[in-house]
Amino acid sequence: MKTVGKRKPPSETHRRKTVSVSVGGIRVGSGHPLVVQSMTSTDTHDALRTLKQIQELSRAGCELIRVALPDQAAIPAFQKIVQKSPLPVIADIHFDFRLALEGMKAGAAGIRINPGNIGGPAKIARLIEMAEQKGVCIRIGVNAGSLEKGLLPRWKTEGQAEAMVDSALRHVAIFEKMNFKNLKISLKSSDVLQTVRAYQLLAKEVAYPFHLGITEAGTILSGTVKSALGIGLLLYQGIGDTLRVSLTAHPREEIRVAYEILRALGLRKRGVEIISCPTCGRCQIDLLPLVQKVEKAVQKYTHPLKVAIMGCVVNGPGEAREADIGIAGGKGLGLLFSRGKLIRKVPEKDLAESLLEEIKKMI
Amino acid sequence: MKTVGKRKPPSETHRRKTVSVSVGGIRVGSGHPLVVQSMTSTDTHDALRTLKQIQELSRAGCELIRVALPDQAAIPAFQKIVQKSPLPVIADIHFDFRLALEGMKAGAAGIRINPGNIGGPAKIARLIEMAEQKGVCIRIGVNAGSLEKGLLPRWKTEGQAEAMVDSALRHVAIFEKMNFKNLKISLKSSDVLQTVRAYQLLAKEVAYPFHLGITEAGTILSGTVKSALGIGLLLYQGIGDTLRVSLTAHPREEIRVAYEILRALGLRKRGVEIISCPTCGRCQIDLLPLVQKVEKAVQKYTHPLKVAIMGCVVNGPGEAREADIGIAGGKGLGLLFSRGKLIRKVPEKDLAESLLEEIKKMI
Q: Rounded to an integer, what distance in angstroms lies between the CA atom of residue B43 and that of residue B49?
């Protein structure tokens, strides 16, 4: 992908400084690239299906995988998942701290606990003992939908963000008192502005890496908007070290959206970026099916490449020239550009094939 | 939609001050709500199909519509479109300033010109004369893909954003010298960071309303990510007065994404917001088809409402309580909440119907 202009992405210039942690060998913190993660949507009791999903997500670019550990009965399957997973596995724990202990015994590289339901210092002391023994990183995962009941008055008087930060800081204090600092923190709400505000506030208070996400963001379209906004506003401000896009959809879409966000902000590049126009009364080729066909065919590539597919001569030649490979549509044909140079005219019916050939050549 | 916490959306607290303009009665500027617009993707020569699309977009919430005016042959159809359109029509002009004159004669409420290809002061003087006579608002629509050739060296040395701003300022100077100020400005690139930077720079220079957009953003998923990021980062900073989401997709999706962006930033509310979880190994109901069914059924509503559809008891009851209406899934059933109160248990098979009934009652 060409860089346009001289300006560095904002995050390179002022990413918030954090300590680093390791989750099964994957480093998370300001000294390292943003880490993309997701969570399995399968039944954890079904180890085979869960592993199959993890493998698919790994191929799609997922780097850390979280798996719900809902009950004792799921422990044997969870253990199998951890053993065979191509990615470090994080156990997602609610309500019962003993599940966290079991998860760590089973080999989890990380655990996520919810301060709203994990219990007090005595239980946390037991977690810490095991986490230290196993070298496990713990995420304090605050969620507005399950805040401690004691914080609800603060939510009402001061705001949701303030209450979430309070929840996190109380638990940070418990962990620090016991001298445990192998922590990540998340503050998730389904409200974008509250989420952004919460991370901004906490960024002033602690140096732990942040896991970003908008929770319960909705289906693919609205969830993508909310995630891009919430995660993007924070990353633009240099806040955030790992991210999970949360969608009511197959988790492979979460990975795709995560990389789209990172690429648009100049933070990580993976796969083919397609620049394509919305079409208008000026468009002289049947653009939408062409773009869809190319987009689908190039999803297998991980090599970063910028491809422009444009319908007319207004911005077509300009965009096609700036991309690695490009097409500018004309009447029943397209001009094919490669590395900024016009190569040849291609009849409309052969455009997809010619473009895919050029892409393959370049990759 | 409930407001969460006390914090006002950032744009309410520091929206950039601009002058106001009117496009066929629709006011654009910092004293007015953000205006949602789109562009027809039909052939302008086909007035009936174009009008049908405009009517559909109007029902979806579009407030201003842009129509390409590609050649003289399209003038009669354009005139018919303007006469019958339920929305003020903006003529999109490239290359030939005479098309802009004809568009204004035909009744366009606004015109968009591209400084990269419209020609010099003598031609602009002719435009101004007609625009003043007809009360037409002119958008200076800079696009990185079609910048003036003379600015390409500046792009190379200083950056794309700087070159785009330069293009806009040169044309603002031409218009102001002729004492014409009925202007909007846009600075679109397919690069999110360059677009954001360009608007930030120009915001320091002029007080005209800004039309926001990421150009050539791609298909529905990547285009939504880029648009949410680019438009969202600017709106969050208080920059922007009207927006067009640009997608290689049916323009009704552009309207949907525009409202999702505005809602997530607390700027405008339209229709039902669905809070739904990504599902995980903890989910006890078949959530995705339920959410999809409800989402589809509520698209017809314009009344703002927050509906939570959650798979389990971790965040389910919390989110369901905060929403206007909510479901928290359990084993083969769901708890139905209304205005924060648990109403009743509903068997899984009846969840969609019960939820839709409650929504209808509330609207």
A: 8
Domain span at residue B78? Answer: 12-264
Same domain, A108 and A53: yes
Quote the DSSP letter at residue A239.
Answer: -
Cβ of B314 within 8 Å of Cβ of A162? The answer is no
What is the predicted pLDDT for the residue at A13? 57
pLDDT, tens digit, 9 for 90 and up, residues B172-208: 999 999 999 999 999 999 999 999 999 999 999 999 9
The owner of tokens 């698209």 is B299
B159 falls within a domain: yes
* Same domain, residue pair B202 and B304: no
* Secondary structure letter of residue A109 according to DSSP: S
Q: Is residue A72 part of a domain?
A: yes
- Chain-chain contact of B155 with A6 (C-beta, under 8 angstroms): no
- ipTM of the modeled complex: 0.94
Tell me which residues of chain A, numbers 284 to 323, contact chain B at a CB-CB cutoff of 8 Å. Answer: 287-288, 291-292, 295, 308, 310, 314-316, 318-319, 322
Length, in residues, of chain B: 363
Helices (H), B265-340: 287-297, 316-322
Of A209, A229, A264, the residue at which a domain comes to its end is: A264
For chain A, say whether B235 makes contact (Cβ under 8 Å).
no
Contact A193 B265 (CB under 8 A): yes
Based on the domain organization, do A278 and A182 belong to the same domain?
no
